Amino acid sequence: MLAGYGAARLAERLPSARSRRAVLTAIGMLMLIEYASTPLPLWAAPRHPPEAYADLVRDAGDGPTSVIFEFPTGAMEDPEYLYYSTFHWQYLVNGYSGFFPPSYRRS
């Protein structure tokens, strides 16, 4: 609604109807460009874990919980490792948050 008031205010300052139409058309085109959505590439989560995780669960048995550090480390791999952790429920050194160490950005 505020954008409409702003556009009306801009249009009323222009001297001719032709320039008003041109400005409002340009604003409309900019809005269409702004609101154009492009699909994001999504990761297709596998239904079964890789074999390494099955081995981990088998080897752990009824023993204590272990701590796992997934390699390679990076901003793009951490969500995948967290997903895989639902198959083995062991603690992870890797995590996922809004903080990325400077070393993640260097690679």
Mind explaining what this structure looks like?
The chain is mainly alpha-helical and 107 residues long. The protein has helices at 2-12, 17-35, 51-60, 78-88, 102-106, and strands spanning 67-68, 91-92. The protein has a two-stranded parallel sheet. The longest helix is centred in the N-terminal third of the chain and has 19 residues, at 17-35. The relative contact order is 0.10.
Describe this structure in a few short sentences.
52% of the residues lie in helices and 4% in strands. The protein is mainly alpha-helical.
What are the salient characteristics of this protein?
single chain, 107 residues, mainly alpha, two-stranded parallel sheet, 2 strands, rod-shaped
Report the β-strand fraction as a percent range. under 5%
Distance between the termini: 45 Å
Note the total helix count: 5
Task: Characterize the largest beta sheet: strand count, sense, and whether it forms a barrel.
Answer: 2 strands, parallel
Please give the order of strands in the largest beta sheet. 1-2
- Helices and strands, in N-to-C order? HHHEHEH
Gyration radius, in Å: 26 Å
Write the layout of secondary structure elements.
Elements lengths: L1 H11 L4 H19 L15 H10 L6 E2 L9 H11 L2 E2 L9 H5 L1
Parallel strand pairs: 1-2
Helix pairs in contact: 1-2
